[in-house]
Amino acid sequence: AVKVLRTLRNHWKKTTFGVCLLSWGGNWLYEKHCDNLLRRAACQEAQAFGNQPFPSSMPLKKATVFLNPAACKGKARNLFEKNAAPILHLSGLDVTVVTTDYEGQAKKLLELMENTDLIIIAGGDGTVQEVITGLLRRADEAVFSKIPIGFIPLGKTCTLSHTLYPVSTNQVQHITNATLAILKGETVPLDVLQIKGEKEQPVFAVTGLRWGSYRDAGVKVNKYWYLGPLKTKAAHFFSTLKEWPQKRQAALMYLGPTERPPEEPDVKTSRPPLHVRLYRRLRLYWSSPPKEIPQEVTPEDWEELKLSTIELSVATRNRQLDLLHTEDFMDICIEADTVSKGQFVNRGSQKMRHPHMCSEGSQCIQASRCILQLPEGTEGSFGIDNEDYEAMPVEVKLLPRKLQFFCDPRIREQILQSAVQ
């Protein structure tokens, strides 16, 4: 033993390296073991759903999964097959996995999709945006928009997961929790923004639209990866060297919030016999008063603003869900154009974490619909749910509670409790 200790002391550099390597390897193996335990527990819970008896005459529920294998730098397929696919197959669902091969393919595939009981999006923000855009562009979108949607967060940016699931630092746990939430069946209604240019087909978003300098600098952060934790501040600092002040000029027209109608109970009543329906129609026809001349519709009360701003954002209220709210609206944030370079760098770092945050001194507007007019020759891009689109004049319309997304039951309970308080 003394000889061994003397050898270790004489070769202390190799000893230190070996100890560090063994510690790292032991920690890596322990994390893998914990991940396997999480997967096993999730599969056992899914098996309980699959073992529930159901009538033989009832067909299996059909789930269509749209998987983007390019998400998370090409790791999404492996993450889905190891963590989510076993849970779905054990649950008793009839699962069809549709893999996208290129950007924009999900929109086209949604046009051809046949009837399904569930839609599951496996990817990031871009995949969500493509799927809901394809879904709501369909001619029969009124029917298909009622299909509940599940989201399995596999992308680099998964903004919607903050709304639907508890925060988790463990990726395996986050994915398995999201997949189990689909089986548990609790849903929340989410607002959607319809964004339409003058000639283009509408694009749909569940998070929002950003246009301005903070967004442009944020897109370039990864170019400075070699600066480590300073890369965010560096991207915003170098942005100030190219052009300052970075103002955006535009005209904005908007309508105020709309009153939320009461929810109608989804109760299916039996259809009366033919002779009863004929009698009711005849009685209604003979007893109805003469038709009145329709009154002129009052013009909508549009407000108009001339903008000079560092950044404009239009966001849904999905991050602050309120199921008992009496009004429906989206948040328009107009950042002040009098910002110093130091403030720009600091606020840019904050907006990387909270993209639609409204900074101090900004103008905040609640609206149900808005029209953004840009000066001729305006260059640059919009960020719509973290996807790039050419900047152009657009109309943004709120579609309140348009889609039903599966969520963790604990999150739904928290939302209801906070609304009551």
Topology (SSEs and partners):
Blueprint: H1 2-10, H2 12-50, E1 62-67, H3 71-74, H4 76-90, E2 94-99, H5 105-112, E3 118-123, H6 125-136, H7 141-144, E4 149-153, H8 161-164, H9 171-184, E5 187-197, E6 203-205, E7 208-212, H10 213-219, H11 231-242, E8 248-255, E9 258-259, H12 274-287, E10 303-309, E11 311-315, E12 327-328, E13 330-334, H13 341-353, E14 363-367, E15 369-373, E16 381-384, E17 387-390, E18 394-406, H14 409-420
Parallel strand pairs: 1-2, 1-3, 3-4
Antiparallel strand pairs: 5-6, 5-18, 7-11, 7-16, 8-10, 8-15, 9-12, 11-13, 13-14, 15-18, 16-17
Helix pairs in contact: 2-4, 2-9, 4-9, 5-6, 10-11, 10-13, 11-13
Could you describe the 3D structure shown?
The chain folds into 2 domains: 22-185, Rossmann fold, CATH 3.40.50.10330; 208-260 and 300-420, Sandwich (Tumour Suppressor Smad4), CATH 2.60.200. 40% of the residues lie in helices and 24% in strands. The protein has helices at 2-10, 12-50, 71-74, 76-90, 105-112, 125-136, 141-144, 161-164, 171-184, 213-219, 231-242, 274-287, 341-353, 409-420; strands at residues 62-67, 94-99, 118-123, 149-153, 187-197, 203-205, 208-212, 248-255, 258-259, 303-309, 311-315, 327-328, 330-334, 363-367, 369-373, 381-384, 387-390, 394-406. The protein has 421 residues and is of the alpha+beta class. It contains 14 helices and 18 strands. The termini are far apart. 33% of the residues are buried. The longest helix is centred in the first third of the chain and has 39 residues, at 12-50. Helix 2 (12-50) packs parallel to helix 4 and helix 5 packs parallel to helix 6. It has a 6-stranded antiparallel sheet with strand order 6-5-18-15-8-10. The radius of gyration is 27 Å and the shape is flat.
